[in-house]
Amino acid sequence: MGKYFKFFGLGILFGIILTKAEVISWYRMYEMFKFQSFHMYGVIGSAVLIGIVVIQLIKRLKIKSLSGHEIMIVPKERGYKRYLYGGTIFGLGWALTGACPGPMFILFGNGFLIMLAVIVSAAAGTFTYGLLKNKLPH
C-alpha cells in the first residue's frame, strides 16, 4: 500500500500545478473556444510538442521503465473514423461539463462538489464501454 503514496503525491502536485496555471478554469476554456486568448492553446501545444519529443526519445534510445521493462509503443490502426467519433464524444463531454477527465478530479478537490456527478457519470460510461466493447466496431 505504501508504494502508492508516491503516485498520490504526484497527483496532488499535478493538481496544484494545473490549478496555478489556470488550465482547469472554465473561463480559460471559454476564452480558448472563442479564440480570445492564446493561454490554453499554448499549454496544449507545448504538451503535444513535449509528448512528441519524449516518444521519439523513448523509441530511439530504447528507454526502459522505472522497473526495468522495455517500453513498447504499439502502432495504431489506420483510419480516421474512430478518432472522429471518439473526439466528438470527448468534445461533447468537455462542452457539457466544462472539464476534460484530468481536471474533473482537480475541480472536485478544489471544492466544486458538483464535479462528483461528472466523475460518477464518467465512471459509469467507462464501465458501460467495458461491457459493450466486444460488440462495438473498432
General description of the model:
This protein is mostly helical and 138 residues long. Helices cover 66% and strands 0% of the residues. It is built from 6 helices and no strands. Helix 1 packs across helix 5 and helix 5 runs antiparallel to helix 6 (115-132). The model has no long low-confidence stretch (mean pLDDT 88).
Structural class: mainly alpha
How much of the sequence lies in strands comes to under 5%
Characterize the main sheet.
none
Beta strand count:
0
Q: How far is it from the N-terminal to the C-terminal residue, by CA?
A: 36 Å
Mean pLDDT, all residues: 88
Q: Give the uncertain stretches in residue-range form.
A: none
By DSSP (H or I, 4+ residues per run), the number of helices equals 6
- Helical fraction equals 55-70%
Q: Which radius of gyration do the C-alpha atoms yield?
A: 18 Å
The helix-strand sequence is HHHHHH
Shape designation: globular
Keywords for this structure?
single chain, globular, mainly alpha, 138 residues, 66% helix, 6 helices
What would you say about this model in short?
Helix content is 66%, strand content 0%. The chain has 138 residues and is an all-alpha fold.
